[in-house]
Amino acid sequence: MNIVLWVAQWMCALAFLMAGAVKVVRSKAGLEPVMGWVHDVPQYQIRLLGACELAGALGCVLPGLFHVGQFLTPAAAAGGAAVMVGAGVVHLRRHEERELVMPVILGLLFCLILVGRVLYPLS
Fold first, then answer.
1. Contact present, 109 and 73 (Cβ < 8 Å)
2. Rounded to whole angstroms, how far apart are CA atoms 102 and 94?
3. Angle 83-103-99 (CA atoms, 0-180°, nearest 5)?
4. Where are the domains of the chain?
5. Cβ-based neighbours of 31, under 8 Å, separated by 6 or more
6. What separation in angstroms does the CA of 50 have from each of 5, 78, 92?
7. Alpha-carbon gap, residue 114 to 81, rounded angstroms
8. Is the dihedral of CA 25, 30, 32, 34 positive or negative?
């Protein structure tokens, strides 16, 4: 089970690392062709979401790697799942049903990490 959880943690961390970095670095105009929802949101909220995604990516793997503050991994997973629920709501409101695949997959992985790391913490 530990290997499954580590694979899920790295997958979610890499996805959030890439998505967060793009949102922090690129301008709103640069994101619009790829992420249509940014048209409805101010620039500072896009950057804040990107920063939260970066923090979630770090929280998924660093506590387990350094064996410090390991309670942060389930907390990061809970936050990641919440972000994915929000992403799903945004895509549903915008009638972008095809865009729901990634939030659903990542949301399920984050739930797996949350439950798994509560039941099977690293020792």
1. no
2. 16
3. 125
4. 2-119
5. 22, 23, 38, 46
6. 24, 16, 21
7. 9
8. negative
Helices 43-66 & 72-93 angle (0-180, nearest 10): 150
For residue 12, the Cα-to-chain-centroid distance in whole angstroms is: 6
Q: Is pLDDT of 94 > 80?
A: yes
Amino acid, res. 47: R
Q: State pTM to two decimals.
A: 0.93
To the nearest 10 degrees (0 to 180), the angle between helices 2-25 and 101-119 is: 130
8 A C-beta contact, residue 81 and residue 107: yes
pLDDT digits (tens, 9 = 90+) for 9-34: 999 999 999 999 999 999 999 999 99
Q: Max CA-CA distance within the chain? A: 46
Instruction: Work out the burial of residue 56: count CB atoms within 10 Å of its CB; fewer than 13 is exposed, 13-18 middle, 19 or more buried.
Output: buried
Query: Three-class SS of residue 101?
Result: helix
Q: Which residue has the tokens 């990490």?
A: 113
